[in-house]
């Protein structure tokens, strides 16, 4: 086998896109069921939620770096 063909075979095997685990149905359901990302820092990560009804009045269930939590979720203005 020529070295060029060997190199091409190696590149073909290692550079082909890897499949993402899970079915397309799971991906769609996850994007529908998971809450939106938090617009502001959650402050503390102690009030976890799965549904909006788990949060007290004035708080929203959203996804942050520490999980799905209840937070004020105020829009933060980053004027410079």
TrEMBL record:
Record bears the keyword Signal: yes
Protein name in the entry: WAP four-disulfide core domain protein 13
Keyword Signal carried by entry: yes
Organism superkingdom: Eukaryota
Coiled-coil ranges (or none): none
Keyword terms, alphabetized: Signal
InterPro entries recorded: WAP_dom
Domain annotation WAP: ranges: 38-71
Signal peptide range: 1-22
Gene name of this polypeptide: WFDC13
GO terms under cellular component: extracellular region
GO MF entries: peptidase inhibitor activity
